[in-house]
Each structure stands twice: as C-alpha cells, then as structure tokens.
Amino acid sequence: MKHLLALDAGTGSGRAVLFDEQGNQLAVSGREWEHRSEPEYPGSMTFDRDHNWDLLTQCIRDVLDQVPDANVAAVSTTSMREGIALYDDRGRELWACANVDARAIEEVKELRAKSQDLEYELYLKSGQTFALGAAPRLLWIKKHLPEVYEKTAYVVMLSDWVATRLGAPPTVDPSNGGTTGLFNLKTRKWDETIAEACGIRKDLLRAPVAEAGTVIGEVSSKAARETGLKPGTPIVMGGGDAQLGTIGVGAVRPGQASVFGGSFWQQEVNLDKPLSDPSGRIRMNFHAVPSQWQAEAIVFFPGIAVRWFRDTFAPDVKADALARGIDPYSALEKMAKEVPAGSYGIIPIFSDAMDYMHWKHAAPSFLNLPLDSDVPLRAALFRSLEENAAIVTLANLRRISEVTGEFPDHVIFAGGASKGPLWCQILADVLQVPVHTRVVKEATALGAAICAGTGVGIYPDIATAAEHIVQPGKVYEPNPSLADIYEEAFRRWSEAYKPQLELADRGITTSMWRAPGE
C-alpha cells in the first residue's frame, strides 16, 4: 500500500495529512502559527519562514509516527492564496508575507492614481484586482527594502515555499500563482505586460509554471533529516487551498459549483474557458484542474460571526453543551430550528455581496429586532446569521450567473458549516437547489493528495481520481414552500445594506473590512 502526504500552509496553521491510495485519511497533525507584525510597517503580516518550517516539520514527523509503516509515494503542497515568497537567483529565500498582509495601502493608491482605468484593464487580463495582489507588495519592497528587491529573482507562493523547503526549485502553479494578479487568464502563464504596467521588473516573473499534478522535484537529504521523509521522495505541484478544496469535494467538471463554509464562505463555479466580468465584481481564477477556470465570490466572516455570537450571547449554551459532550453549535441549531424561516424579520448586516473592484463591507449590526418578549431572541438571532450567510451566497451566485449565463442546478457544500444540518437545509431553501455534502472533512488536503498521486501515476488524472475517491454525503432538497419567504428576505437585506454601507463610507460607523486603498 502506498501513501500520499499533503502539506498545508494555512492562514492560521500548518498541517500535515496522510492518506492511502483510496483517499482514506490515516493521520493528521497541525500546529497553529501567527504572522508577525512589524511595528514600523502598519498592516504588515510577515511570514516567519524558519519558525513555521520548524512547526511544519513537527507535523510531518507526527503523522509518520502515527503510521509507522508509512510508504510515502509522493508529497504535494497547498497554502493560503495571495501570500508570496521571494528568492534570489541561487534559490535562497529573501522575504515572505501572509495573505493578510496589508502594508501596501499607499502603493495601491499610487497604482490607481497612475490611470483611472489601469486596475480594471489589468483585471480583465488577470481576473484579479490590486486588493490582495503581488504588484503593490513588490512596489512596497522596491521602495522600503530596495536591497531585497534588487536581489529578487523569483516570486512564488507559500505552497511553493513549502515545496522548495522540501527540495524542489522555485516553481509556481496557475491556481495559486494566478492570485498574484501577474498571470494572464488566457495563457495560464506569467504576463510581463502586467508587470510593466505596474512599474515592476518583468524579469521577476521567471519562476517556471507547472500545472497541479506535475512532479517538480524530490525530497533533499537535508529535508529528509528534518522531516523523517525518505530522500528522493517525489514532490508534486499542488496549488491554492480553495482550488484544491474543489478537487477534494469532487468538483472537477465545468459547471459544477462548490460552497466552502468556514471563517469565510467561498463560492467556486467551474468554467471550461476564461471569462471576464464586465462589472468587475467577480474574481476569476485558474482551477487546479488543468484546462479549467473558476468564477469565485466570497462572503466575509460567517464562521467568525457565529463563533462571536456563541461566545458573546450564548456562553451558557456553550458551557452546558460542552458539559454534556455536545457540540455547542448543535445546541444552538436545535434552538434555531424552532424559529420560523425569516427569523421574525431580523436583518443581519455583515458581509456585502461580492464587489471585487470595490471590496468593502458595512459595520456589523442587526436590524429590525422584535421588541416582543415572546420571541426567542437568541435563537432567532442565531438562525438569522445562518440565513444571512445563505442569502449573501445567493447574491454571489446570481452575480456569477450573470457572467456564465446559468445558475447552478445544485451545489456541493463543504467546510465546517456543512456539519450543521440546519445550515445545510437553510442553504438549500435559500438557493432553491439541492445541496450535496461530502463525507471528507479535509477537502483541501485530499485535493493535494490527489495531485500527489496523479504525479506519480497512481491515478490517471486529477478529475478521474477525484470522481472515484470522493465519498458523497447527505443531499438536502429545497423546500419550495419557503422560496417566496427567502426571496423577500433577500430583497429586504439588499435594500437595507445600501444605507448601512453609506454610513460606513461617511465614517459614521466602522466598516467590518475594507480592501487596501478603499
């Protein structure tokens, strides 16, 4: 039996997950990490390369200890998107930052000041905006760390940083590298004209591009000593976490749609060709499946909002559930299940619908609270949060459908939120399409493992492997009788959000989040 190792450099932790050839998870280990802020650079979130590598090597050793007879045939890597690492011409690390790094606010403003249409023109080429792209960060380095800028020969992503630490040369894939905003949507390669337009050296875009599932190197003797892996173990190109997640849930064909419910909710719709959104609202990415693309939208903080509610408004429910060995969210869902659809008209104001060119949100709040002592307010508020995540998802999928020409006939729902049966049913009722869940709990890691197995010939290709390995879970059918209720809730939320966003724009309230430069 051969085994496949997935390594994940996530926003909040590093993880190692070991699978067998059938996609069964055998062992997992994770270590939390934090991104260091440099006080002299507001908004900075530096990626601590040495410390985080030490944590990741501990994770690898943990999973190898859990499966003493592990026969690792290949290893593949994934990571948070947008985080970048820089190397010199000898492959030595120079600098790295996490995806949440926001030090380049002034550089975003300067790029936008160069030309009113520059960002939009480059968005049509790359599918990305300046908000989280690499160009403003590279301009920041050019200005503040000129010695690093001059030495830089390669720009890669944090998943590629893991691969280079293992022994591979600096190499990028489209699904993660494309989030730099320096790739061309049509060619799936670096685009030097974008670099020139932004005023950065075009020779920075020299890292070779390899599609997911391609062998790019092998574990070095040094990395073998650090990790316990065998030297010479093939290293296979992986990709961005969301894109490998879609592989891990079996969304590998054009037209399929996935919703990942975590701290953020991501909506991914597979495309058989690159498309452009004339409105600039939808993000366009490369799928990790070669020759496919994805339209992406994001709901900000649904998972964080329900956690905040649990800890702030229902600590007694949480404590009682934990004392009885029950998941606190299950207890809250049991309460919310008794609340009628529409949550007594409560309108949560958290994330706006996706507007990639003007990415900002209103201040968190609840509107239209009922002053009725007979209303179970905590249960109603919790249900309204679950409904709101589904309503904003509907808004996003409708915006995507304006580009693709069709609304999905079903969605695959994965991530922590998909563990809640009420949330699954609410999503089905709001979208009015069936919601399919999956047995797998480590979708991104499974996607990386499938890439690893494809690279060494265990699987014929990524799509075929995913369709055979991924195990379907429960399907939630929509209740047609609730369609009008949720359509009205959608309309009311849409109308209520506009003035709330205006208040945040005027500084009367504090925006939940705004992209750099907004």
Can you put this structure into words, describing what you see?
- The chain is of the alpha+beta class.
- The protein folds into two domains: 3-249, ATPase, nucleotide binding domain (Nucleotidyltransferase, domain 5, 2-Layer Sandwich); 299-438 and 479-505, Nucleotidyltransferase, domain 5 (2-Layer Sandwich).
- 39% of the residues lie in helices and 19% in strands.
- The chain is built from 18 helices and 20 strands.
- It has helices at residues 49-66, 105-114, 118-126, 134-144, 146-151, 158-166, 174-177, 192-198, 221-227, 241-248, 302-313, 315-323, 328-336, 377-404, 421-431, 443-455, 462-469, 483-505; strands at 3-9, 13-20, 25-32, 72-79, 84-87, 93-97, 154-157, 183-184, 189-190, 215-218, 234-240, 257-261, 265-271, 283-286, 293-299, 347-349, 365-367, 411-414, 435-438, 472-476.
- The chain has a seven-stranded mixed β-sheet with strand order 14-15-13-12-18-19-20, with helices on both faces.
- Strand 12 and strand 13 form a beta hairpin.
- Helix 2 crosses helix 4, helix 12 (315-323) packs across helix 13 (328-336) and helix 14 (377-404) crosses helix 18.
- The longest helix has 28 residues, at 377-404.
- It is globular.
